[in-house]
Amino acid sequence: MDLKQLARQYFGAVNRYDVETVTKMVHPDYIQHNPFVPTGRDAFVSLLPKLASHNSKIINLRMLQDDDHVIMHHRWENAEPLGGEELAAFHIIRFDSDRRIAEHWNVSEPLQTRQDGERPQVDGPSDIYASDHTQEHKTKINALFAELIASSELTRELLKEFFHEDHVLHKINISAGLDGLLKQWQKQDMKIQHLHRVFAEGNWVLAIAEGMEEGVSSAFYQLFRLNKNKIVESWGVTQSIPTTGLANDNTMFGFS
């Protein structure tokens, strides 16, 4: 069984609130990077009854594997214990040498639904291809974030180096194309200050960065789909970085 299959087994057990299976799959010293959940397996397992009481469910949308990490793009339903009725979320789990889950990161934001019932934050393709271009695509996204960190102002000319002219940004009420992307970045008053990690598989790349949004320290998870070494679609979740009420001191990052 590969790590993706194990990840599906894991979130399937979470959806069943199966304490026994989750306990078997997770290392006792599981490192938790969600700032509001204590570190360790027992603290996570104790959340399962709360999820059950709300009938909270994971709907997996996309899954990548990069070495011993599995990256999952989820939609959560009935997610009140996690902070909202419906959430768009990224979860990352790291497997140890015994194929147990040893570490976890996640971010989430409220999911918005348009009047036509579509959910732009999570809709779109999921097929993985171009496996022989994984490193090339990872290098491209590293270069993009180097430019974003170094540049004092985001410009259309800079975006053209990395994004397709018809790029689709999966945010509600955002027009397609470079102009829509530029307007969104300017509207959010975003500044990337540090790139923590880039994960990739084939034509998909997830970048995890830290910076400021509207004056608030934030974690940025940006998922990109590339074609011919240009970004054609992107999805993102931004979550503010808390400084009080922390349940652990592992930070929201801490990638080795």
Structural account:
- The chain is of the alpha+beta class and 256 residues long.
- It has two domains: 3-110, Nuclear Transport Factor 2, Chain: A (Roll); 131-240, Roll (Nuclear Transport Factor 2, Chain: A), CATH 3.10.450.50.
- Helix content is 26%, strand content 38%.
- It has helices at residues 3-16, 19-25, 41-45, 48-54, 134-150, 156-160, 178-188, and strands at 26-32, 57-66, 69-77, 86-95, 101-110, 163-169, 190-201, 204-213, 216-227, 230-240.
- It has a five-stranded mixed sheet.
- The radius of gyration is 18 Å and the shape is globular.
- It starts with a helix and ends in a 16-residue tail after the last strand.
- The mean pLDDT is 94.
Gist of the model:
This protein has about 260 residues and is an alpha+beta fold. It has helices spanning about 5-15, 20-25, 40-45, 50-55, 135-150, 155-160, 180-190, and strands at about 25-30, 55-65, 70-75, 85-95, 100-110, 165-170, 190-200, 205-215, 215-225, 230-240.
Radius of gyration: 18 Å
Q: Using DSSP, what is the number of strands?
A: 10
CATH architecture of the largest domain: Roll
Largest sheet: 5 strands, mixed
Question: How do the strands and helices of this protein lay out in sequence?
Answer:
Layout: H1 3-16, H2 19-25, E1 26-32, H3 41-45, H4 48-54, E2 57-66, E3 69-77, E4 86-95, E5 101-110, H5 134-150, H6 156-160, E6 163-169, H7 178-188, E7 190-201, E8 204-213, E9 216-227, E10 230-240
Parallel strand pairs: 1-5, 6-10
Antiparallel strand pairs: 2-3, 3-4, 4-5, 7-8, 8-9, 9-10
